[in-house]
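The following record pairs a protein chain with its ligand, calcium ion.
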Amino acid sequence: MVQSKFRRLGMLLFSLSLVMLFVTIPSVQANSEEEDDQDDGVEVVAHRGAAGYAPENTIAAFEKAVDMDSDYIELDVQMSKDGQLVVIHDTTVDRTTDGTGKVGDLTYDALRELDAGSWFAPEFKGEHLPTLGEVLDEFRGKTKFLIELKAPSLYPGIEEKVAKALEARDMDDPEDDSVIVQSFDFNSMKMFNELNDDVPVGVLTWKSEDLTPEALEAFTEYADYVNPSKSKVDRELVNQIHDLDMGIMPWTVRAQEDVQPLMDAGVDGIITDYPDYVPEQSEEDED
Ligand code: G3P
Ligand code: CA
């Protein structure tokens, strides 16, 4: 009698735990889906390579970015006097090399002689200014590319040269946005899009006037990404850009505390000198 009472109690407890299990599983799943949605694979874009850890726009900086599992490397492209596509941010070589002068006034051979590493730290002595082709050849298959045309109005024909560099490597119809070309110069991006509308294009801006509903609508004619200064980003802007079927990757994160607000706003990528500031994504997100 006492035994059967215990058995009944046991059955009751067992049934109750089963009910609890079925009630809990969907709510755990829903929570984790919610978290997935929030993080939804934000792309880590290593700005000028991992520029916080190695001299910007050098092979060392891009290697560091890849070692840190960045999804993209961001690089700035300009043109030498003799028409080579070179990777450097400023329009002069003064800040990031041991030389002086304008990039466009120097031949590729002269640019190649410059030391682009020592200014950052002695152990990087001997890093040189890479060409776009060199970076594409070295890092394709290892990461994705966010290529900025820097001051393209100084270099007539640079859009065509970049389009040809991609075409020569069969990278002119990239899958999964593995190559994106961007610029602050909207005319240059329109031009690039006319040359090749298979490569996604981004527009860069820090100006509020470029982020009005009308301005955003106008970008849809040729752009796939609107990449503003991080100070301009909130959930409303992200939603507006997403509603127009474009992506948004703000710049430039140099402080850990700037990451989470951007992720909460729902951005698609974060452009940062410090790729390790962006929390690791789950493998599911990365797929
Ligand atoms: O990719 C965005 C960012 O690179 C734009 O600013 O001056 O670093 O080229 P800047
Ligand atoms: Ca840049």
